């Protein structure tokens, strides 16, 4: 499963799918509305799911409509996907509801899969596996606003903030190095996007990540363009970030950006820059980022390197559509 809940809403094939319940669960007082097949506009040859039974809808919140809106925000980019909410149940934990969804696609003989997750009493979060993510009809709106206000990394592309692609990355992370060609292509494919490199140094495993981020903020003070030249140089010589050659590697990258390494080194040692790096790390952690690289598309977190590029483009375009913003991408076939 892609798009935000890849590591959280795990989907497993089920045989003879049954929604779990107990004989002591309270019955719904009235049939729950909108228990239809959610097909996002396509017409499957047959409904592959068992009918939703009102007796499995024992929780007053969330509503089926809210769950469907949440899932559409996650999965609506995929016109082949179909699902039905099969249960919204009370649990032993006060106010916590369990949601069960059956999932398939319109392919012949497609398997039926299931996903289950728990919604917190305030209705703002989903708990599944070992992850917690935002929930609701517009689950990414809060993080979108937070990043509009606080993402301060170097930017490429558009000046406006209504369509933001925020990459959380670590200059010493090998997967981040791999992701840069993808980020470069996204800049070309989505001209209206403001594409931001937001430092998230994983200092506990990458000894030069924090210093690299501090250098980056100091380089950025001169220009965003200088930062991206610096970052590309660090990624190109990433193997040199060792105890013996790490400092020289960073200074050489500064030189390639056309700046004075001694001045940047002095800047990076200041409390203000160290505090800026710490704030960027906190922003990532508070945003729910738990790996690098990770891309926030108007608040929708995506694991960049785990998604095929054409699928990633579809998700980004769909999120822009949901948010009512233009991507600037040419229409298909042009």
TrEMBL record:
SUPFAM superfamilies: Thioredoxin-like. Pfam families: Thioredoxin_4. GO terms for molecular function: oxidoreductase activity. Residues 1-17 form the signal peptide. Keywords: Disulfide bond, Oxidoreductase, Redox-active center, Signal. InterPro entries: Thioredoxin-like_fold, Thioredoxin-like_sf, Thioredoxin_domain. It comes from the Bacteria. The keyword Disulfide bond applies. Residues 101-269 form the Thioredoxin domain. Residues 21-53 are annotated as: Disordered. The keyword Oxidoreductase applies. Residues 21-34 have a biased composition (Low complexity). Belongs to the thioredoxin family. DsbA subfamily. This is Thioredoxin domain-containing protein. The lineage of its organism: Bacteria, Pseudomonadati, Acidobacteriota, Terriglobia, Terriglobales.
